[in-house]
Specification:
- The chain has one domain (3-136): 5'-nuclease (Rossmann fold).
- It is built from 7 helices and 5 strands, in the order E-H-H-E-H-H-E-H-H-E-E-H.
- The protein has helices spanning 8-16, 22-33, 43-53, 59-72, 80-87, 94-106, 130-136; strands spanning 3-6, 38-42, 73-76, 111-113, 127-128.
- Helix 1 crosses helix 2.
- It starts with a strand and ends with a helix.
């Protein structure tokens, strides 16, 4: 089974229904819900998404949405090693470095799915947009 890390932007596309990205995020999360793929999300993404979604929704609504995400995904820790590697990496975006090194340490992640491919130019893991990922499967 393919194992992917989805970045915060893909999750937010789903929750906020951002056009034109919403459809692809729905397809990816549906694949996860139907156990066609295994989706990983970092603990950092939960925090980022809570912060942004809380600006437009109640605490209760946001928490319920994140609970549903937790059910269909496996949560990766952002640990001290991830932070250390990110701090000394060539990544220009620190958050993306944390996401990357969390996935890298997990191993067995086949691809990182994000709309910010340029931020992962130093990645040793394949990186794809949601659209390209869906075309590839």
């Amino acid at each position: 089974m393919t194992q992917i890390l989805i970045d915060s932007d893909v999750i937010l596309d789903f929750f906020i229904e951002r056009k034109p990205f919403f459809k692809d995020s729905v397809k990816i999360l549906s694949l996860a819900e139907n156990k066609k793929i295994k989706v990983f999300v970092t603990s950092l993404s939960f925090s980022n998404c809570y912060y942004i979604l809380r600006q437009i929704g109640s605490h209760e609504t946001v928490i319920e949405s994140l609970r549903k995400l937790a059910i269909i995904s496996e949560i990766l820790s952002v640990n001290s090693k991830s932070v250390e590697l990110a701090l000394y990496s060539e990544f220009r975006d620190f958050e993306d470095a944390l996401q990357y090194f969390s996935a890298y340490q997990k191993g067995k992640i086949n691809v990182i799915v994000t709309r910010n491919i340029k931020d992962y130019k130093n990645s040793e893991l394949p990186v794809m947009t949601p659209e390209n990922y869906l075309k590839s499967i």
